[in-house]
Amino acid sequence: MKKFVNDPKNFVPEMLKGIALANPKTLKYIPEYNLIMRADIPISNKVSIMQGSGSGHEPAHVMAVGRGMLDAACPGNVFAAPPADFVYQTTKLVASPKGVLHLLNNYTGDTMSFNMGREMAEAEGIEVRTVTINDDVAVKDSTWTIGRRGVAGNFFVMKATGAAAERGASLEELEALGNRVVAVTRTMGMALTGCTPPAKGTPIFTLAEDEMEMGIGIHGEPGRKRVKMAPANEIVDELLEAVASDIPYKAGDEVALMINGMGGTPISELYLLYGYAHEQVEKRGMKIKRNYIGEYCTSLEMAGFSLTLVKLDPELEDLLAAPAEIAIRVF
Amino acid sequence: MKKFVNDPKNFVPEMLKGIALANPKTLKYIPEYNLIMRADIPISNKVSIMQGSGSGHEPAHVMAVGRGMLDAACPGNVFAAPPADFVYQTTKLVASPKGVLHLLNNYTGDTMSFNMGREMAEAEGIEVRTVTINDDVAVKDSTWTIGRRGVAGNFFVMKATGAAAERGASLEELEALGNRVVAVTRTMGMALTGCTPPAKGTPIFTLAEDEMEMGIGIHGEPGRKRVKMAPANEIVDELLEAVASDIPYKAGDEVALMINGMGGTPISELYLLYGYAHEQVEKRGMKIKRNYIGEYCTSLEMAGFSLTLVKLDPELEDLLAAPAEIAIRVF
Amino acid sequence: MSKDVEYVVRLIANTVFENEQYFSELDGVVGDGDFGYSIARGFEKVINEWDTIDHSLPGNTLKGVSMKIVGAVGGVSGTVWGTAFLRAGITLGTKTEITQQDVIAMFRSAIEGIKKRGNTDLGDKTLLDALVPAVDQLEKSFNDGKDASTALDEAAVVCRQAAEATRPMLAKRGRAAYTGERSIGTLDAGAVAMAVLFEAVSKAWKE
Amino acid sequence: MSKDVEYVVRLIANTVFENEQYFSELDGVVGDGDFGYSIARGFEKVINEWDTIDHSLPGNTLKGVSMKIVGAVGGVSGTVWGTAFLRAGITLGTKTEITQQDVIAMFRSAIEGIKKRGNTDLGDKTLLDALVPAVDQLEKSFNDGKDASTALDEAAVVCRQAAEATRPMLAKRGRAAYTGERSIGTLDAGAVAMAVLFEAVSKAWKE
Lengths: 331, 331, 207, 207
Ligand SMILES: Nc1ncnc2c1ncn2[C@@H]1O[C@H](COP(=O)(O)OP(=O)(O)O)[C@@H](O)[C@H]1O
Ligand SMILES: Nc1ncnc2c1ncn2[C@@H]1O[C@H](COP(=O)(O)OP(=O)(O)O)[C@@H](O)[C@H]1O
Ligand SMILES: [Mg+2]
Ligand SMILES: [Mg+2]
Ligand SMILES: [Mg+2]
Ligand SMILES: [Mg+2]
Hints:
The complex is a heterotetramer, with two copies of chain A and two copies of chain C. By secondary structure, chain A is α/β, with parallel strands linked by helices. Helices cover 31% and strands 20% of the residues of chain A.
């Protein structure tokens, strides 16, 4: 395992310590409950928004805490949902009179922790609503699975609800807004390589030198199929077709386009992919109003990317463009 | 080779196309000379600043073009200096009456291209000054090499001179400022894995599963030594000692601390490294006024990182904090 | 009696610690490879903070174990195992003696809790597919008048067989469910863990 | 006479194309693995845009070749090879016939240009360490009255030996220089390229 790690068990806490030391004025790290929160919350006239999920997807979600986005993130261990007690404790810490919005990627484990944590918080009179994010088109809905996974599209839910909360939206309004964003957001990802959770020490899966996996999940869950490596443009074509035919998006739509790196793919390649994806989206008659190229929701050091389309309306576009102050910044 | 690439020969142009499509209002891509430039330059009362180097170090330098940083970047192929003619053409395109500042990472190839390009531009009456960046402490100065390499510390030179140019500094002032930043900036990097230039198709070098290379260059040039893998904290200790003992920095200094990812290392690990580095820098009695955690100057998909210290003064700190509008952004 | 509960909890904990890597590997085949790690961290907290748990009654010990697990492990394993211990503790209530009937009642209540929390049932390829047959056997052996050691032995054998029988199943819960058809032919990690634990308890009971 | 120049330039270009991968691999041992790729792109531009070059004089052809290289290849190779062709073209001036003396003068002038542009000299483990001995031999063979074919043959042999002799040298220029001691024991890519090119020209001359 070639990683920067001391004790694998301390991987997440040591990362959180780094986040806190890098943002001493704006963020707080509460080691006891493994959480990162804004230093200035709860704010009495603002709904608090929190998200938790397994670690290993950074910057999601611990580096997306700050004014205009999340008020707190309670991560679990790498690829493991946060403990229910931590969901509960975080909810208590951020609870404002206007309530708490839980953002949740749609996985069994996360859902179970958040449900249990929410029940515990509600038992103490805290008002909680939940938005479940399930933008991944790779896994088809079925009667017996929990349904589509939440992947990189979670960025747009965090950003839009975060901006709206800052402007005073109520808990009900934020819940509706979150669901509205989910309804217009679709993603599909793929991988060239596996990744190694620090505590496991060996890759979750491996792909042959000439193989790639289409429709991969952000925990290395197998996707739609393993196929032979293909030129970049063909990969974009396939992901875009899967995504764009899903809602479906149609000519004339205004959209945001995201090329999200999975962690091990250099930004040069992401821009190369973006260039072609941009042309193809416009060729379908859509108008790209905002673009996102970089790492938003990763799988440790996995090489690969996901493509996300969001159908915009003027309100949503405005919320996405609003300022935010989060750990991830360039200068 | 597991990369997102169509024709390896078009890797750089396709990436540049992506940058331009993602920033249609602010940036221009001139395919003929392989360059990215601000759409609004030259500005007659502002010195223009440009940098060129091999590609493969993104976001340096093509994604650092924008108001407050570079006016243009003329990249070469992956890990290859730009053609002298392109340096010349770029210089002509950005030339303002106040002159052109060349920023240059100290490598034989880059220096030769920039020298030849500068001579060609000066022959046409364009005033050019050059700041040579050589922050890498891994390679000791010697009488016969070109001297220390320019690595991730180039970010601080771009940022400071870019901000000062925006404020109206003269070419002479910018040259002096650039050299002043170089004088207080030191970096050392290391790698866990090699990387594969698209046109080469195979890794430049390989490291065994239990091996790492200390003092690596950003083109995979061998560093000080190959040693057995060590815990993250020990690696930070070694890089920090090499860097901090070089100027040397001393207790009481105000500094900026950068943990720069080499391309394949996830941001979670970079924050883990930062947390410990922060503590150790403060233990040495320095005060960290600004921090930078992420990818600033990479080597394709190499796993590894570099640590940079910059000794700050109030003017420099202010220039580093000034706004800039570049391709790399989060939302 | 709290001593017996303590003994079993510690035995479970130690068995989990010994099998951490193995359990994770099983989960890694079609899941996300965190099962062993997760559950080991849960029992680590249980053991490390043993003295902060209220041990005034066996039922309180079990509830305390639940809270430690729910405070250390997230997702499926944390909530499922936490719910199981919580339900068992609630079922035991203020009793100070634990009869064979109590043991079965605790297991039944834990199983119901897991089904509700996990929105799952038999046949979904989860630990229930090993746990339920094992408890059925345990109850049958008790009813047949077998002694504790023999009953545990028989339950352990059934548990192992039932765990092996998850192989042809299609995973319908947890992260393994995303693999769809590919999950067929692999063992369910949670089910194997049940077998390993039943075997450990049965072996220890003999000694 | 421009035909001869064209013939040699095209021969060099084709030889470079054939050896692109090989040259890059040589550069990859202690350098950055771009040498073959770089120089091939340079000659690609030369060949693709051949008709845009002013071929009114052999010297102009050489200067045009230089500008194409300098417009396609960066760094050491672009400026060094560009400077070499530029200097050769300037030295030839308006001559329309190229004598043996002219050939030597062109080489000498190119070598001086490379030394200046590269801030380098013999012994730094660069292409000069193969080129200079080869040109010395070529001059000697010419002076000894050998015909072109024999002289080229002898120069090629010396060039190959000299390229091999870069192995024990310490690289003092280019990216290979950063390897320090590790560059000892490896061939210099540029020097080997000189040998390959001299051999190609000498072979072609015989046919
Ligand atoms: N919904 C569920 N209810 C009960 N048990 C489940 C459920 N989903 C999975 N399991 C069990 O949990 C095990 C996986 O645990 P773990 O790896 O911690 O969860 P996750 O699938 O979230 O990674 C599976 O092997 C299975 O036995
Ligand atoms: N300063 C220099 N002057 C002349 N030739 C040089 C110099 N440095 C390197 N070379 C030659 O150029 C070759 C490397 O070319 P190339 O790989 O294109 O350059 P770089 O070292 O910048 O990657 C070396 O093998 C050597 O023969
Ligand atoms: Mg899990
Ligand atoms: Mg990366
Ligand atoms: Mg799992
Ligand atoms: Mg080279």
